[in-house]
Write a structure and sequence with these properties.
Length: 556
């Protein structure tokens, strides 16, 4: 056996940390590419979520496989619960499914890809750097990340190869057979690197060198499942108690799963060996190196599936226990201008962030529509106090509009597809159109109100069935545009756009009616007509902006 001084620790350490860095970077490249390619499909998977716990389980597994990270899925659940988009009970089966979806990565990295790795790196780089089609660039990024991931595993394997003859390390690996030691080490390391996949990669790299007994690997896997809960718990800091409950559910599920297995690791290892490919033609370290990587991956998969199937019947008790540990407390209602749906976690997946921004835009649109209606009323019969209240209300709405645009801007900085880029642009255009409606109320209608008050004009007597129908048609069109943001419908949007001719006819009829009533006998009549005509133009502008919203909604 070799002594510690005979080993080149600097070289080994460099290979180990460098390999881990390559693995994590490759994993991030893969995740970014998969998120961008998943696009709207990711939202579809979440959209199919129902009260059925098994569908929730499948949805969690599918989303995690698409995102290549159970941590991201759980953090997204924290954001959705804090935004009121999901209940705690809905997240429980999805969290269980996330554990199953994460085994996909472990199965991939258990393959020996040393021969193909250079080709993955070369082809991936060429496609990522030079392909003209976006889909090919995304595929290139995924392939490049895949190659870097396997190159990192090779580096870690090269770093640990000299330890085959280093007795203290061999003894330490045998110590990992102790469940408590293995679970503790796996949990701490995973919590530090915030990636259970990285822990699995190191376990597989050690197993490929014949250094990691399967029993030790299983104990570390159990610890990794507990350690990965740390990120979700950190994400819940500063969020409502309901968000913390999601992190606690994740922790409880993994802890209970570990307790189901931790005391029967030797028997479980024998079962995994029985169902995994074997290499009886080899012996000793060579056989361990050939068999252990796949055994580790299978141990992870079987554990995740079995614990999910065992505990899915207890989703209700798990949720209630989490609510006891982190009890909800009455939350003061958020002001209307405070965002509700713009959770930062959704930015991890731009296709989901787009949906959050759309929901917030629908809220903002409702405020703008109410502001415009109030502005029309104030312009005809309001006083100075009404103007002050209208301007204060507009200031609040303006803050919400700015928050939405800022959120969309941050989403554009994340890796996203061209389709998502088009949708983000449409959302920004919708926000700008709603801002313009708000500007009409804040600037033009308020200006007309002040001129009416200064000139002592009387617009009330000009109001009749024709003018009222025209104004109501305009505001009904704005309400319809806002409803389309909440529930995009191409046919309804087209009908709103095609209503321009009808609106123009109503505007013309309203002008004729106002002219007839104003008579224009003196300066007061002239002022009344001018102000009424100006209001007609402002209402036509609101209608034009409503149709613009409908056109942009068609692209969502």
């Amino acid at each position: 056996m070799r002594k510690l001084g005979e080993l080149n620790l600097i070289h080994m350490s460099g290979l180990l940390v460098g390999g881990l860095a390559l693995f994590l970077f490759g994993l991030q490249l893969m995740t970014d590419g998969l998120k961008a390619m998943a696009g709207a499909r990711l939202q579809d998977v979440l959209g199919r979520l129902s009260a059925n716990r098994f569908r929730g389980l499948l949805a969690g597994a599918a989303v995690t496989a698409l995102l290549n990270s159970s941590t991201i899925t759980t953090v997204l659940m924290v954001g959705f619960v804090s935004a009121g988009l999901m209940t705690l009970a809905q997240t429980v089966p999805m969290i269980m499914g996330a554990n199953i979806g994460s085994t996909f990565t472990a199965q991939l990295i258990a393959f020996d890809m040393s021969v193909l790795t250079p080709f993955m790196l070369a082809l991936g780089f060429l496609a990522h750097a030079f392909a003209r089609r976006e889909q090919l660039r995304r595929l290139g990024g995924i392939l490049l990340g895949f190659g870097l991931l396997f190159l990192g595993i090779q580096f870690m394997g090269d770093a640990t190869r000299p330890l085959r003859t280093f007795q203290p390390f061999i003894d330490a690996m045998q110590e990992m057979r102790s469940p408590l030691v293995g679970v503790a080490v796996g949990a701490i390391f995973t919590a530090v690197v915030q990636s259970s996949a990285a822990t699995l990669a190191i376990i597989i790299a050690l197993g490929a060198q014949g250094l990691m007994p399967l029993e030790s690997g299983i104990a570390l896997i159990l610890g990794a499942n507990v350690g990965t809960c740390g990120t979700a718990l950190l994400a819940a800091i500063g969020k409502p108690p309901e968000a913390l409950q999601v992190g606690i559910v994740h922790l409880l599920f993994n802890v209970f799963g570990v307790l189901l297995l931790v005391f029967i690791i030797p028997q479980y290892a024998d079962f995994v060996r029985h169902i995994s490919p074997s290499a009886p033609e080899l012996s000793g370290v060579a056989r361990l190196a050939a068999e252990t990587p796949r055994q580790v991956a299978n141990a992870h998969t079987v554990f995740s599936v079995a614990s999910a199937l065992a505990l899915i019947w207890f989703t209700g008790p798990l949720a209630r226990l989490a609510q006891i540990l982190a009890p909800s407390r009455p939350q003061p209602p958020k002001p209307d201008f405070s965002p509700i749906y713009l959770d930062e976690e959704a930015l991890l997946a731009p296709s989901l962030a787009i949906e959050r921004a759309r929901l917030e835009l629908a809220r903002y649109g409702g405020q703008v529509a109410a502001l415009a209606r109030r502005g029309g009323t104030v312009a005809v019969e309001g006083g100075l106090d009404d103007i002050a209240a209208l301007l204060e209300r507009d200031k609040d709405a303006e803050r919400l509009g700015a928050a939405i645009l800022s959120y969309i801007g941050r989403a554009t900085q994340e890796e996203h597809s061209e389709r998502d880029a088009e949708r983000m642009l449409d959302l920004a255009q919708i926000a700008a159109s709603l801002d313009a409606v708000s500007d009409v109320a804040r600037t033009n209608l308020v200006s007309a109100t002040k001129r009416r008050l200064e000139g002592g004009a009387d617009l009330v007597h000009l109001r009749d069935e024709t003018t009222s129908r025209f104004a109501e048609t305009v505001f009904a069109g704005l309400d319809e545009a806002v409803a389309l943001i909440a529930e995009p419908d191409e046919e309804r949007a087209e009908r709103l756009i095609e209503a321009k001719a009808k609106l123009d006819d109503l505007a013309a009829a309203t002008r004729r009616d106002v002219l007839q009533k104003a008579r224009l006998n003196d300066e007061a009549d002239v002022l009344n007509f001018r102000l009424a005509n100006e209001l007609i133009e402002q209402l036509k502008e609101i209608s034009r902006l409503s149709r613009a919203v409908a056109r942009f909604v068609k692209g969502l």
